[in-house]
Design goal:
The complex is a heterodimer of chains A (about 475) and B (about 90). Chain A has about 475 residues and is of the alpha/beta class. Helix content of chain A is about 35%, strand content about 25%. Chain A folds into three domains: about 190 residues, FAD/NAD(P)-binding domain; about 140 residues, FAD/NAD(P)-binding domain (3-Layer(bba) Sandwich), CATH 3.50.50; about 70 residues, BFD-like [2Fe-2S]-binding domain (Arc Repressor Mutant, subunit A). In chain A, the strands form seven sheets. In chain A, strands 1, 2, 4, 5, 6, 7 and 21 form a seven-stranded mixed sheet that branches. In chain A, strands 9-17-11-12-13 form a five-stranded parallel sheet. In chain A, strands 14-15-16 form a three-stranded antiparallel sheet, with no helix packed on it. The longest helix of chain B has 7 residues.
Chain lengths: ~475, ~90
């Protein structure tokens, strides 16, 4: 299969990019591993009919009540689903990509074509969630805040009946508000960032009245559900036999170190999140340069003002270039799609400028807000002393904190050595979950900068595939160096 | 479990269960009060849903002839025979 532009990721960035390129006359294939467009933020219900009424299920989940969650993307983006220039490849995972001829070849599973040749690629792969470990974080019932939200929006299923929301970041309030609005008893929202840090951001937030209104909406929803939100509290531990039964919370200072009383809250589910990490598998496979963030265990794809990466013909937008939410993603996507069309000669310079001037004028403001969020929700070190020797760090390979710190004391030069010594990042998820944790912990425990340690992100296979896929992949590259790492 | 709309019937570990049509396996199990369906290889810990969007691979489960299927991504189908995964195999490309 052959196309002008391959857009990978159908969240707001990818949808906007596909529309911009297709509106300029390009043939576009828009990929997403999910069965619907919208990405994580505009996740749609996958149920054919709303399941209303009070749940009478087992002890775990319950049917969500109230108005239906998961309304999907806004109308202006939904146009992508019906555009004659856009072929949707949904439920299709791109697992490898590389240069081929004057363009690129993408390998995919789940769709009709195994390979897709494209003259230009737009990387809109989004971000995955960061969860810093604590004792009990592997207990069933402890899930990411994103998982709680995805279950609600796509499945109208509550992950529990008495749910605690904890961690740090702008996702906690909307998730808690969503759960409370659909019938869950939310056993509190515990934000680790202190009130002083939050207040210091107020003058800057005030310059974004839309965001203030959004926050006020969540606060109102929580008030209606009689949910109390506290800041300066950290989730220290989850306990239970075979599943989470109670959560231990502790008052913390600005460094997240215990500074006051603890409390024990009975729960049957916990939604936890400490931030987001850009997904860079595809950009790295395509040779795009990225940059380690100075104080956060993540890297971002380097782009110029037209969203072009260091690889000619590859453009990046959305969370991959820096976590900043849907508004930034959509604006960057519109520029990236138009830039791809210009590269293919479908837009001249004047046409490109005319189509992107509106977005270009608003991107700066959206990025300012992203930078503000990063300042409001920094990662602190106070979680480190709460981790116990037997706390699992790598969930796939069952590698414990004791094993990680033991390997660190041997003085490894970088994260690849730690991987070899401990098996962290060698399992099913290939370091997607533990990679940022191991990088951050290693930096803090050894006093070395994050960029010097490197990361566990260098993967050749982006999604699990069978050996048969590797054997039949026809791009002239040997399959086994990648296969051996799986 | 109550609720309007069509349902599908499936088995989990030999027990007959139902879930709303369109449910992922993870939602179907959680809706029936089942939170864990995998045992880790080394420490023998119970696991179920974690990331919910398909990247963590914690929720692997065995379905019919397939082993290590991501429960949060794959819809439950009529007559599915779902079994706890001991994660002895690598994930099928689902």
């Amino acid at each position: 299969m052959r196309t002008d532009v391959a857009v990978v990721g159908a969240g707001p960035a990818g949808m906007a990019a596909a529309l911009a390129a297709a509106d300029a006359g390009c043939q576009v294939v828009l990929f997403d591993s999910a069965p619907q467009v919208g990405g994580q933020i505009y996740r749609q219900s996958q149920r054919p009919a709303p399941g209303s009424g009070p749940g009478a299920g087992g002890a775990g989940g319950a049917r969500a009540g109230g108005a239906r969650a998961g309304g999907g993307p806004p109308e202006r983006l939904r146009r992508a689903a019906a555009h004659s220039g856009i072929t949707l490849a949904l439920g299709v995972s791109v697992w490898h990509a590389g240069p081929a001829g004057s363009g690129f070849r993408l390998h995919a599973v789940g769709g009709r074509a195994d390979t897709i040749d494209a003259a230009a690629v737009v990387v809109a792969t989004g971000a995955s969630e960061l969860v810093l470990p604590f004792p009990g974080w592997t207990l069933p019932g402890v899930v990411t805040a994103g998982a709680a939200q995805a279950m609600l929006k796509a499945q109208q299923t509550l992950i529990g009946r008495r749910i605690l929301v904890a961690g740090t970041g702008p996702l906690l309030l909307p998730v808690a508000a969503g759960l409370a609005g659909h019938g869950a008893r939310v056993a509190g929202v515990y934000e680790a960032a202190g009130i002083a840090t939050m207040l210091s951001g107020l003058p800057a937030i005030a310059r974004h009245p839309g965001k203030l209104a959004e926050a006020a909406g969540y606060a109102a929803a929580l008030a209606r559900g009689r949910v109390r939100a506290r800041s300066g509290w950290a989730l220290a531990e989850c306990r239970g036999r075979g599943r989470v039964e109670e959560a231990v919370l502790t008052r913390v200072d600005r460094d997240w170190r215990a500074s006051g009383p603890s409390r024990v809250v009975p729960v049957d589910a916990v939604a936890v999140s400490h931030g987001f990490v850009p997904v860079l598998d595809l950009s790295r496979a395509l040779g795009c340069r990225d940059e380690q963030l100075p104080d956060y265990p993540a890297a971002t794809v380097v782009v110029d003002t037209d969203q072009a990466t260091s690889t000619p013909g590859v453009f990046a937008c959305g969370e991959a270039t820096g976590v900043g939410g849907a508004a930034k993603a959509e604006l960057e996507g519109a520029v990236a799609g138009a830039a791809a069309a210009r590269r293919l000669g479908r837009l001249d310079e004047a046409g490109f400028r005319a189509r992107t001037s509106g977005a270009a004028a608003r991107i700066g403001r959206a990025r300012d807000f992203a930078a503000l969020l990063a300042r409001l929700y920094p990662l602190a070190d106070g979680w480190l002393p709460r981790v116990r020797p037997d706390t699992v760090v790598c969930r796939c390979e069952d590698v414990t904190w004791e094993e990680l710190t033991g390997a660190l004391s041997a003085g490894p030069s970088d994260l690849r050595s730690i991987k070899g010594l401990t098996r962290c990042g060698m399992g099913y998820c290939q370091g997607r979950v533990c990679g940022p944790v191991v990088q951050f912990a290693a930096a803090r425990l050894t006093g070395r900068p994050l960029d010097e340690l490197g990361d566990l992100h260098t993967r050749h296979i982006m999604t699990p595939v069978t050996l048969g896929h590797l054997a039949t992949a026809d791009d002239g590259e040997p399959g086994d160096p990648a296969g051996s790492e799986l | 479990m109550t609720g309007s709309g069509p349902t599908v019937s499936f088995r989990y570990d030999g027990t007959a269960l139902t879930a709303p049509a369109g449910s992922t396996i993870a939602a179907a199990l959680i809706g029936n009060g089942i939170l864990a369906w995998r045992t880790t290889r080394r420490l023998g810990e119970p696991r179920g849903l974690f990331c919910g969007i398909g990247y963590c691979q914690d929720c692997l489960v065995d379905v019919n002839a397939s082993t290590a299927v991501r429960a949060c991504q794959v819809p439950v189908r009529e007559d599915d025979d779902i079994r706890p995964s001991r994660s002895l195999g690598w994930p099928d490309a689902d």
